[in-house]
């Protein structure tokens, strides 16, 4: 029998907790392990219930989601974290992803995307709902593709950084080849090299790399 994904919820609004539980209970592969209405002791309680994933509001009384992530940073996370927020502020998105969150959902899209987000994160992927992806993609500019000291550690060329940006902007191989005046075969070679160098699976992984290394404007 397939092991159920255990989920711990943290939000200061009981109505949202109830709503998420109702959605999650419709999936036979999920089990709600417990919930908290504030940020105090969330880590201890979620770990105690042997949760696989913590779905956590960013704004909570006594201790907010940022503080909880900071408590976790620097050590091996006992579970994966999906952030819930009423805001799609790019600076906030960048901060929580740098602190180790695996996903980010706005509360407006949580009901529709929470199941998909949990499944993706449990499979080792990062997840952003569409409004957040659109916000990230629109922040790319043609002027922020220069290597810095951090990206240099990965031996990335300016051309590879351009490829990262265009892939993350959801350009097709043909569109990238036209944009950069290179062949589609060259684009595919660059893509394969980037996946290998950065150890990512898809365009969302490239977006997270871009967030971590400040390739996205605030």
TrEMBL record:
Listed GO biological process terms: phosphorelay signal transduction system; regulation of DNA-templated transcription
Record keywords, A-Z: DNA-binding, Phosphoprotein, Transcription, Transcription regulation
Organism: Flavobacterium caeni
One function term, GO molecular function aspect: DNA binding
InterPro entries named among the record's database cross-references: CheY-like_superfamily, NreC/VraR/RcsB-like_REC, Sig_transdc_resp-reg_C-effctor, Sig_transdc_resp-reg_receiver, Tscrpt_reg_LuxR_C, WalR-like
Location of the HTH luxR-type domain: 149-214
PROSITE patterns per record: HTH_LUXR_2, RESPONSE_REGULATORY
Domain Response regulatory: start-end pairs: 6-122
Name of the protein in its database record: Two component transcriptional regulator, LuxR family
Residue positions, PTM 4-aspartylphosphate: 57
């Amino acid at each position: 029998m397939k092991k159920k994904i255990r989920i711990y919820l943290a939000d200061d609004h009981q109505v949202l907790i109830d709503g998420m539980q109702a959605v999650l209970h419709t999936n036979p592969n999920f089990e709600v392990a417990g919930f908290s209405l504030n940020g105090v002791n969330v880590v201890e309680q979620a770990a105690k219930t042997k949760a696989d994933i913590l779905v956590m509001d960013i704004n909570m009384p006594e201790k907010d989601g940022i503080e909880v992530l900071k408590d976790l940073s620097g050590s091996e996370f006992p579970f994966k974290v999906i952030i819930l927020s009423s805001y799609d502020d790019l600076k906030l998105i960048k901060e929580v992803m740098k602190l180790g969150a695996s996903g980010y959902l706005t509360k407006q899209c949580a009901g529709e995307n929470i199941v998909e987000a949990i499944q993706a994160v449990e499979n080792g992927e990062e997840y952003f709902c569409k409004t957040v992806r659109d916000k990230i993609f629109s922040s790319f500019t043609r002027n922020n593709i220069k290597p810095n000291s951090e990206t240099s550690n990965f031996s990335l060329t300016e051309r590879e950084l351009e490829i990262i940006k265009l892939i993350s902007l959801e350009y097709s191989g043909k569109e990238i080849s036209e944009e950069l005046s290179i062949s589609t075969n060259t684009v595919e070679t660059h893509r394969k090299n980037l996946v290998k160098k950065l150890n990512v699976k898809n365009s969302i992984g490239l977006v997270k790399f871009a967030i971590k290394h400040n390739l996205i404007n605030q």
